[in-house]
């Protein structure tokens, strides 16, 4: 359908370095002005060019004949810039001759799911999907995640899209840019379909009982992100009581806490809600619902290593002996729990949810059976769910466990979940210290921060090799991981920033300090490395 012009031309456009907007397999930028030193980078013309770049990439990828128009679904989280960016994305998609289907407030997993659902009545499957989100970042940020039925796009695809966007934007610069209202936009309530599928999954696992969670009191904390649907649209139809649930209303200023299951204040908020309401279980999501965590009835947090242990126990009951793929910062206690207690295999890989998912797909392709890829951040993907990292689906797996325990007469508590992580060794001390690289320091000698960081890691690895008290991990895919003094440390290079995060876990503060001192001694000659966080930690 032709797009009708509805606004005056915008007279001047700034030049933009599109590749700087890449954040691994996502695009991220500043969408709202008002924070000092953070100029807006995701303007409407930039956003429109990115969407048109995705449309061009999709046309190349799908290679459909002219008789069929491709369609792209668009959803967003609760950010205050969502509507403006959704309109700009819609214009970019429509300008390339593709059909646009807007879902409004949605979750990231639902957007991927829309490329798999087959139902023409709701214009599915979508050929491509775009989620407008910046996960748990501050209110002024936003960004994009892209999907096809093959899953989330990878780094190379994102680079390709941004290069196409830069070329489209240079056309805007040359010929002028005007806002054209797109007429080929349809709206669908896809979240109703997605939540109905989650409800069906729990009912099926419980032997087709209509209300398998009847009598359970479960509180949800959505952190004012997009996950508020889970209480009324998933838990209540299953019979659960959800009174005491909090921050379910979407509010892109995130007034209560950061919607992030790794954030201490966020976890404290859901824990308090569980205890105050004497609930059986608490569930918390990040802004776009691709990450989650839980809290049991005693207020014990089921996140990070504990959530991985819990999901591993559930998956290994269903698939004995299978491999569990995790990110690099998981504990030694988790390895021992997966391998010795559960009889599985722990494959510790790199940080980054896309890295973990790509690795699990690779292992399955070479004959190593694996059903779970999960990060300490709360990203978790299951083979049975198309390797989609879906925070809501992870929680459905916990609900299935609760429902089946109740059906077999074990009551309505969360003890069945707590019992599954019995025997997980947990360190007394677990810290992450961030060692920043000063990119303007002369010690870089013209090297990029990445090259400098690699030199630090190389030197640390060499110095550890001659130390009898320490043992370098024999199988390791990221950074330098070392065991000693009853604990371990991992120094690695951040995926995107000029930072070397240092994780230390140990049985006592004294042992953690000993590990810290070993790192400190090895890296002290690197003058561009800001070790102040480490220096403070090891001080007597």
Automatic annotation (TrEMBL):
Pfam families: PGM_PMM_I (PF02878), PGM_PMM_II (PF02879), PGM_PMM_III (PF02880). Keywords: Carbohydrate metabolism, Glucose metabolism, Isomerase, Magnesium, Metal-binding, Phosphoprotein. Residues 24-166, 197-299, 304-405 form the Alpha-D-phosphohexomutase alpha/beta/alpha domain. It comes from the Eukaryota. Its EC number is 5.4.2.2. InterPro entries: A-D-PHexomutase_a/b/a-I (IPR005844), A-D-PHexomutase_a/b/a-I/II/III (IPR016055), A-D-PHexomutase_a/b/a-II (IPR005845), A-D-PHexomutase_a/b/a-III (IPR005846), A-D-PHexomutase_C_sf (IPR036900), Alpha-D-phosphohexomutase_SF (IPR005841), Phosphoglucosamine_mutase (IPR050060). GO terms for molecular function: metal ion binding; phosphoglucomutase activity; phosphomannomutase activity. The keyword Zinc does not apply. GO terms for biological process: glucose metabolic process. Its cofactor is Mg(2+). GO terms for cellular component: chloroplast stroma. CDD domains: PMM_PGM. It catalyses: O-phospho-L-seryl-[protein] + alpha-D-glucose 1-phosphate = alpha-D-glucose 1,6-bisphosphate + L-seryl-[protein]; alpha-D-glucose 1,6-bisphosphate + L-seryl-[protein] = O-phospho-L-seryl-[protein] + alpha-D-glucose 6-phosphate; alpha-D-glucose 1-phosphate = alpha-D-glucose 6-phosphate. Monomer. Belongs to the phosphohexose mutase family. This is phosphoglucomutase (alpha-D-glucose-1,6-bisphosphate-dependent). It comes from Gossypium tomentosum (Hawaiian cotton).
């Amino acid at each position: 359908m032709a797009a009708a012009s509805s606004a005056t031309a915008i007279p001047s456009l700034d030049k933009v370095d599109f590749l700087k907007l890449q954040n691994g397999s996502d695009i991220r930028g500043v969408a709202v002005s008002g924070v000092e030193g953070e100029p807006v980078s995701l303007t409407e013309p930039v956003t429109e060019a990115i969407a048109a770049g995705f449309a061009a990439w999709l046309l190349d990828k799908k290679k459909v004949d002219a008789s069929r128009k491709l369609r792209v679904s668009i959803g967003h989280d609760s950010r205050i810039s969502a509507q403006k960016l959704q309109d700009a994305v819609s214009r970019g998609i429509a300008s390339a001759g593709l059909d646009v289907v807007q879902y409004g407030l949605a979750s990231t997993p639902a957007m991927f799911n829309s490329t798999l659902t087959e139902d023409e009545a709701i214009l599915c499957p979508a050929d491509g999907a775009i989620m407008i989100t910046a996960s748990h970042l501050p209110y002024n940020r936003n960004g994009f995640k892209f999907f096809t039925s093959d899953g989330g796009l990878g780094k190379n695809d994102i680079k390709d899209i941004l290069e196409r966007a830069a070329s489209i934007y240079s056309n805007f610069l040359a010929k002028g840019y005007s806002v054209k209202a797109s007429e080929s936009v349809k709206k669908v309530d896809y979240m109703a379909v997605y939540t109905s599928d989650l409800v069906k999954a729990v009912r099926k696992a419980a032997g087709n009982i209509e209300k398998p969670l009847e009598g359970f009191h479960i509180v949800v904390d959505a952190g004012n992100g997009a996950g508020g649907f889970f209480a009324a649209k998933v838990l209540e139809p299953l019979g659960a009581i959800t009174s005491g649930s909090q921050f379910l209303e979407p509010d892109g200023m995130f007034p209560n806490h950061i919607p992030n299951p790794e954030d201490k204040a966020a976890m404290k908020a859901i824990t308090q809600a569980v205890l105050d309401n004497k609930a059986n279980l608490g569930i918390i999501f990040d802004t776009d619902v691709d990450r989650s965590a839980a809290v049991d009835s005693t207020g014990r947090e089921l996140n990070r290593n504990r959530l991985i242990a819990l999901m591993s126990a559930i998956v290994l009951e269903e698939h004995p002996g299978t491999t569990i793929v995790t990110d690099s910062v998981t504990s030694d206690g988790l390895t021992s729990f997966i391998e010795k207690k559960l009889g599985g295999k722990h494959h510790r890989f790199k940080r980054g949810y896309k890295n973990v998912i790509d690795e699990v797909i690779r292992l399955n392709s070479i004959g190593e059976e694996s059903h779970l890829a999960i990060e300490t951040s709360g990203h978790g993907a299951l083979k049975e769910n198309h390797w989609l990292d879906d925070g809501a689906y992870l929680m459905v797996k916990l609900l299935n466990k609760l429902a089946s325990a109740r059906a077999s007469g074990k009551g309505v508590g969360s003890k069945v979940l707590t019992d599954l992580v019995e025997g997980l060794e947990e360190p007394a001390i677990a810290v992450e210290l961030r060692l920043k690289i000063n990119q303007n320091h002369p010690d870089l000698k013209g090297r990029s921060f990445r090259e400098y960081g690699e030199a630090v890691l190389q030197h640390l690895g060499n110095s550890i090799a001659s130390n009898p008290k320490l043992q370098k991990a024999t199988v390791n895919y990221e950074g330098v991981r070392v065991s000693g003094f009853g604990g371990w440390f991992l120094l690695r290079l951040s995926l995107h920033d000029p930072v070397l995060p240092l994780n230390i876990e140990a049985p006592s503060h004294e042992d953690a300090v000993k590990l810290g001192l070993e790192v400190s001694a090895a890296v002290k000659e690197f003058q561009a490395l800001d070790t102040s966080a480490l220096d403070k930690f090891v001080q007597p």
